[in-house]
Description:
The protein contains six helices and two strands. The chain is mainly alpha-helical. It has a single domain, classed as Helicase, Ruva Protein, domain 3 (Orthogonal Bundle). The protein has a two-stranded antiparallel sheet with strand order 1-2. The mean pLDDT is 96.
Amino acid sequence: MYSMTFSSIYPMYIQKVERKGHTQAELDDLITWLTGFDKTQIDAFASDESTFPEFFDAATLNPDASLITGVICGYRVEDIEDPLVQKVRYLDKIVDELARGKAIEKIKRH
C-alpha cells in the first residue's frame, strides 16, 4: 500500500462507481470531502505517480472521516491502527458506499 499510486487505483474507483450508475463527478465530490482536494488537485494526482503516502500527506483529512465505520476488505475501518492504511480504507469505504447506492450526504456523515 505504501508504494501504490493514486493514479493506478483512481481509474478502478471510477469504473466501480460508473458500473453501478454513478458518476466520476460524484466520486470526486466524495474525494474532495475526505481530502480537501479540489478537482484540479484530484486530476493532478490521477495523472502523476504520487504514492498513497504522498497523496494523504498533502491532504487535509475531513474531521468527520473518523465517523466512517464498517468493514472493508475484511477489516473494521475504525479498528485499523496504521494511520495510512486507515485513510486508504476510508477512501475505499466511501467509494464502496457510493457504488452500493448510499446517498452522498449520508456518506459524508452530515
